Amino acid sequence: MSASAEATILITHAVGLHARPSVKFTKLAKSFAADVEVAVAANGPWFDAKSIVKVMAAKAPKGTLLHIRAKGDGAAQAVKALVDLVRRDFDEGADHVRSA
């Protein structure tokens, strides 16, 4: 049986999931062995979170609920790491830093 995990997170970054945030998101997704997918609607369409072209094509602006799911080795860790990255506004700007 393969491990799986999923989560939904609100994008609060001013420009949404574009340019630099997309690069950070896909780079982090690629660091996990699990297959990771994202969607901007709960019922899809789902696309490969490791593809910069597909992530940027989602055109997910601020206020979008981003759905993340993963399957395989490290699925839970991948989803948690990506949710944390979105929650931290992709680590951009001093005003986006939040204390633990």
The first-to-last residue Cα distance is 34 Å
- As residue ranges, the low-confidence spans are 96-100
Strand order of the largest sheet: 1-4-2-3
Mean pLDDT: 91
The major sheet is characterized as: 4 strands, antiparallel
How big is the Rg? 13 Å
Listing every helix as H and every strand as E from the N terminus to the C terminus, the arrangement reads EHEEHEH
Dominant shape: globular
Count of alpha/pi helices? 3
Determine the structural class based on helices, strands and strand pairing.
alpha+beta
Strand content: 15-25%
Q: Would you count the extended β strands for me?
A: 4
Share of residues in helices:
25-40%
Concise structural overview:
The protein is α+β, with helices and mostly antiparallel strands and 100 residues long. The chain contains 3 helices and 4 strands; from the N terminus they run E-H-E-E-H-E-H.
Written description of the protein model:
With 100 residues, the protein is of the alpha+beta class. It has helices at 19-30, 52-57, 75-87, and strands at residues 4-10, 35-39, 47-48, 65-71. Strands 1-4-2-3 form a 4-stranded antiparallel β-sheet, covered by helices on one side. Helix 1 packs antiparallel against helix 3 (75-87). It is globular and about 35 Å long. The termini are far apart. Residues 96-100 have low confidence and may be disordered.
